[in-house]
Design a protein that fits this description.
It is a single chain. By secondary structure, the protein is α/β, with parallel strands linked by helices. Helix 4 packs across helix 5. The protein is globular. The N and C termini lie close together (11 Å). The structure holds ribose-5-phosphate.
Length: 288
């Protein structure tokens, strides 16, 4: 087995190679003067199982095309099997057509990855599980939530409670909380009348407790900042947030900190300063 490290996932690739005790190859990646990519895998892959590890985070389109080039090159070098390890799959939130003529972007992305040469795919906490069914090759969605739970448990919070940022995140919150052996709930929007919407935890009280807001992705931070406002009004002791994918677009981290959220805890599906939990053992386990 050989790991091919894409430029968006250099650290994760190295950690994965260590876990799997296998060779790590850093491909030659350059740009031509006109901006086009030059990609070369300088390794013998004949008969090998090659894992191309590349998240398609920002710059999404560059990282996606690099992934496709690497998959194709691995196949051309005669790898017996090429696995696309795409810890963060871009465009996964664009899985529906709201207006006629709109591209369902994730469908195109899945076709590209498959046609480029992936024999199978591994991703993590993809925005909608059904996305894996777009592939005709085997596609596996793993969850990093228990790993996040284990890390957070080591932080020794005060009477911790885990909250899903919204209905979609409630299963994630449950998995984090089960690992920690603590309570979980989710935030719920309740419409009081035409003008008034109240957001509050569905069941639990958060006063004097450390709250961890969980989501799959933190992008602009808007969702957790709104949640934090509500929790502060309800006298939560401290507010933290945890997610698998630290997209953190633009000044999101700054805005999150200004909103009084003490810390963002994320995984290395996207390599960011807040990515303190590695998904390498999770991927290694799935490969085994
Ligand atoms: C939405 O359904 C996702 O699970 C996240 O809640 C959302 O993508 C977070 O985005 P933002 O940080 O921009 O609010």
């Amino acid at each position: 087995m050989i790991i091919i490290a894409g430029s968006a996932s250099p650290e994760l690739s190295a950690r994965l190679a260590k876990h799997l005790k296998c060779q790590l190859v850093r491909p030659e990646l350059r740009r031509f003067p006109d901006g086009e990519f030059y990609t070369r895998i300088g390794a013998e892959l004949k008969g090998e199982h090659a894992l191309v590890v590349q998240s398609t985070c920002h710059p999404q389109n560059d990282n996606l095309i690099e992934l496709c080039f690497l998959l194709d090159a691995a196949k051309e070098l005669g790898a017996a099997r090429v696995t696309a390890v795409v810890p963060y799959l871009a465009y996964a939130r664009q899985g529906k057509r709201f207006k006629p003529g709109e591209a369902i972007s994730i469908h195109t992305v899945c076709k590209l990855i498959e046609r480029a040469g992936a024999d199978d795919l591994i991703t993590i906490d993809v925005h909608h599980e059904e996305i894996t069914r777009n592939f005709s090759v085997p596609a596996y969605n793993l969850t990093a939530m228990p790993l996040l739970g284990r890390y957070i448990n080591g932080l020794k919070f005060k009477a911790p409670v885990v909250l899903g940022a919204d209905k979609g995140a409630s299963e994630h919150a449950k998995q984090v909380a089960l690992e920690m052996g603590v309570d979980y709930d989710r935030l719920e929007k309740q419409r009081i009348n035409a003008e008034k919407v109240v957001i509050q935890p569905k069941r639990l009280h958060v006063a004097n407790r450390d709250v961890v807001i969980v989501d799959d992705i933190i992008s602009t931070g808007g969702t957790i900042i709104e949640a934090a406002k509500v929790l502060r009004n309800q006298r939560a002791h401290s507010i933290y947030s945890a997610c698998t994918h630290a997209v953190l677009a633009g000044k999101a981290l700054q805005r999150i900190r200004s909103a009084g959220i003490r810390r963002v805890i994320a995984t290395d599906t996207i390599e960011h300063q807040v990515s303190v939990v590695s998904v390498a053992p999770l991927i290694a386990n799935a490969i085994h």
